[in-house]
Amino acid sequence: MKKQLIICTLALSAYAARAQETISPAGPQGKPVYLTNATIHVGNGQVIENGTIAFSNGKITAVGNNVTASNDATVLDLKGEHVYPGIIAPETNLGLVEFESVRATIDAREVGEMNPSVRSLIAYNADSKVINTLRSNGILLAQVTPQGGVISGTSSVVQLDAWNWEDAAYKTDNALHFFLPSLSPASSGRSGASGDRQKLAMEQIEKVRTFFREAKAYQQEGKHSAANLKFESMRKLFAREQKLFIHCELVKEMLVAIDFAKEFQLDVAIVGGTDSWLMADILKQNNIPVILSQPHALPVMQDDDIDQPYKTAAQLQKAGVLFCLSNEGFWQQRNLGFEAGTAATYGLTKEEALTAVTLNAAKILGIDKTTGSLETGKDANIAVSKGDILDMKSSVITRAFIQGREINLDNKQKQLYEKYKQKYGLK
């Protein structure tokens, strides 16, 4: 058995070594770079026509119409092209799952219900083949999120051009995740089943509330006879150095989330928020941001408009609620920009839709001081497209930079495309 395990391990190691055959992380930025004559979409609603953006040592040094290149700089003429902030993908198990049908490649869940000490970052696989398919669509940062249980652990934001998880770390342990038990009234078909399920869900919520009260009391104690690792891992949360992301969909569930924020004085964000449009004013009053998940989906309730998921973003924008867009899973994240494009046809302007996957996401994830928009002093996380990055038909990403490093936009699918073009004489 031991011999078989060793052989299997070696085979998997060899497979992983081939995972990115010709794609390696870029080296540090050398010369200053100037991208000129482009349409620059800053990410905060501003658009600069025929502008220039300069960056050096990984940081943006100038943005505008009257930027003169230094003598030692690399100047790239991008006439007719568009420059955008790199898209940010919140709430994804990217790098934690490679093949959904192969259990050995799934590392997104931990056993047990209360796991605040679990850290998704250390399980992140920087060699995942899926990562490069996201970069090809201008997605340069992602929030790697654990799943499973009720308190699933902490997420971290990673940049998508790294040798390993240590290199990838962009903001470590930025949020703790609470998957609120569903309070949906949907019945399973048995008499009383719906009520029983809601009762069990409320009991489970009370268990979590008790867990939080005990953890807070633990923090307030001066000394402990024995360390509680789960409670110790929640220090940053109660110090408001970390956010609590509560995953829920319905109005009654979001009211529970707001109650948690008030009782424990926590920095809370809603993840999912399908029904957030019904209580946008309450979310605004309580300063609760929303990460709208899976915009391309059917409505939850039967009497909702069929296109309600497309309209929700504009309704939150109108109400002044801070929100961003996300997608479920890992490979699906490559369509995030296009889902923002859908929101732009249902009430948002194009620049508002862009902000929903760049600067707004950065604000909710706590990284807006370093990324999310093309402003002086921020990291040079930049995507260059021949067309509209939010439009599936016209978007063609020609260049991308992460912290000033120009990254390789190749991926396995592109390689296979070129391979079979050659086989059938289509080159």
TrEMBL record:
Keywords: Signal. Residues 1-19 form the signal peptide. Residues 343-405 form the Amidohydrolase-related domain. It comes from the Bacteria. GO terms for molecular function: hydrolase activity, acting on carbon-nitrogen (but not peptide) bonds. InterPro entries: Amidohydro-rel, Metal-dep_hydrolase_composite, Metal_Hydrolase, Metallo-dep_Hydrolase. This is Imidazolonepropionase. The lineage of its organism: Bacteria, Pseudomonadati, Bacteroidota, Chitinophagia, Chitinophagales.
